[in-house]
Amino acid sequence: MTIKLFDCTDVAAPFGNYAHGAIIPPGATTIHLAGQVGVRPDGSIPDDAGEQTRIIFANIEAVLASQGFAFGDIVKMSYFVVDAEDLPSIRAVRDTAISAPWPAASLVLVKALGRREWKLEVECIAARIGEA
């Protein structure tokens, strides 16, 4: 059995690069990542949303790799974004890191995150058949 990312033709098509859902069969190994933010290893935080997004995707890649997973194993992403005007730069960076088949995704505009400097936070779930 394989992991299946899918779109449902009975509802509106996705509004961007994401799937409507993911089916993870029994026996698959999953990893749930905590929200990743745009903080460099030295603790500094860039002002630019695009740069924060690059850091976030580097963090996601590192956390996944530490357990034998890769971007292609992501089945669900959740984006929490403070300013909708940052979406074009966020999407541009995302599209360099992740490609089709697109994982299921949610985008939530929020008033604030845990620190004032954070422009976005990204959570994800990855799955693969068998051991990672």
Automatic annotation (TrEMBL):
GO MF annotation terms: deaminase activity
CDD domains: YjgF_YER057c_UK114_family (cd00448)
Name listed for the protein in its UniProt record: Endoribonuclease L-PSP family protein
InterPro entries recorded: RutC-like_sf, YjgF/YER057c/UK114
Superkingdom: Bacteria
GO cellular component: cytosol
Family label: Belongs to the RutC family.
Pfam families, sorted: Ribonuc_L-PSP (PF01042)
